[in-house]
Amino acid sequence: MSLLELEAVRVVLGGRRILDGIDLAVEEGERVVVLGPSGSGKTTVLRLLAGLAVPAAGRVLVGGRPAAADGRLLIPPEERQVGMVFQDLALWPHLTVAGNLELGLRARGVPRTVRRQRVAEMLELVELGDRARARPGELSGGEQQRVALARALVLRPRALLLDEPLSSLDPPLARRLVGVILRLQERLGLTLVHVTHDREEARALATRTLFLERGRLSG
User: Fold this and answer.
1) For the range 186-190, what are the long-range contacts, defined as Cβ-Cβ under 8 Å and sequence gap of 24 or more?
2) CA-to-CA distance for 78 and 76, rounded, in angstroms?
3) How far apart are CA 115 and CA 40, in angstroms?
4) Residue 141 has what pLDDT?
5) Of 187, 176, 169, 190, which is closest to residue 27 (Cα–Cα)?
6) Which of 21, 37, 149, 208 has CA 20 to 30 A from 163's CA?
7) What is the average pLDDT value for the chain, to the nearest integer?
8) Which tens digit of pLDDT belongs to each residue from 178-208?
9) Sheet of 16-26: strands edge to edge?
């Protein structure tokens, strides 16, 4: 059974067909990279899997359970065990690094002592243990990317969705973050779905690469 699936999914936005009946099956532990040009619908694929969008037609399945179908949301984002790192990171600028990580845990009713322990452990994993009290604006681009990763992972998802997280980084920083992602994936047993337009990035991260263009997905 696949962990994440799209079945004959079609998405239409503003009268334009973004996804045209695509199928996708991601197995547990895979690192799937979806490669395609800007505007090809890559982010839409992630939003469907995360529960932030629903298909006009077709189904989304998570762990074999229907999560969305034919315009209806059946499993909300917070119940999917799927984390997402957005292209613009979406960090809260007024919160500290630790505060950004705690926010989702607090929303899920995790007790304070447990929250603090999990936040500290995750910041150590991404090598930011000494930056817990800093605010995002005080961090480098690479550090901000690692905060966004940690914020998604502190909720202990089974799958992690990555929306071009390396696009704003220079090559040395991008290579370092690739190493961080691969290390976290192995240590935490994650399933990854990563979207990018960069073929070199895809080669570095993928166990399987798919191509999205003109609304169609191919291997």
Assistant:
1) 187/125, 188/153, 189/29, 190/29, 190/153, 190/157, 190/158, 190/159, 190/160
2) 6
3) 38
4) 85
5) 190
6) 21
7) 93
8) 898 999 999 999 999 999 998 988 999 999 9
9) 16-26, 4-13, 57-62, 65-69, 72-73
